[in-house]
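Task card 7
Instruction: Convert sequence to structure tokens.
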Amino acid sequence: MMATEAAPVVPSQSTEGQDASLNSALAPLIDAYLHVLAHERGASAHTLRAYTRELHGFAAWFATAISRELSVERIEHTHIRAYLGALDERGLSRASAARALAAIRSWFKWLARAGYIEQNAASLVATPRLPKHLPRVPSIEQLNRAVDSVSDDAASWPARDRAILELLYGCGIRNAELTGLNLDDIQWSNEAILIRGKGQKQRLVPLGDAAAVALRAYLAERAARLAAVESPQDAAPEALFLNLRLRGLQSPGNQARLTTRSVGRIVKRIAILRGLSADVHPHTLRHAFGTHLLEEGADLRAIQELLGHERLSTTQRYTQLTASQLTQVYDRTHPRAHKPGQ
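Output:
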């Protein structure tokens, strides 16, 4: 079948040297879809890496297990189910299989819209049932103590790291949103921050007093460190959060911007030294933001807007979390929670 909306087929740099192991009919269509994600839909670098990995993983398996030449319109739902079975045999979790299926579904949906296939085989494959895990979040008191006590023993750059925690917990933003912030995203006159979320969507979140104080203290030190650099740049870096040694300052693209991995290490170190769970990470603070707002009576729709959730059902996870916490309190404190003698 001829495509009615042919997309440009461009080779993917991330798959260089792998094409020999892929199905020759599938690889160009995968790269065409990745091109659409990157240049038309504004997908994040994280999404592109994930979809590249999942789709080329499927194509490589298909070339080995089914055919190196079979065209995409000959793929059936049984093939996709067999691939999920192969992932299970490799010991991958159901969550990993679900992510792979999500990428394949998205690709097949595009293939159908672009006219490469008549029937969407992926739509017939059910998502693996996932266990429901509610995120564990520290209490309001625990997080307040951790944020208020950022000092030299727990941080390599206390002013910066205090500001990081204030924004992650005080504004509920994602790790990638934090590291992507630029100086001009801070709207001091509006007491707000411009956040660039998933899919290039933008939203304004309030800048609380505590976060504003922490940011001003950090920005003063940031300016002093940049002024001390022996070879000042023609233009100051636009990135809000800089790495400790200003690595990449000479590079126009990096500008010493702090990475998400570094933020993860900063948060974990402070959490452990302040007695929080070792599994605390930047997204834990985002969960805590939503959960604590709900506990204090915030409207679910308002929380949805603040977090940048596309669907209200995503925000409703915090309702489940709070209900679970209330059950624990009831079981621990109410005299009629347990049968006599228990």
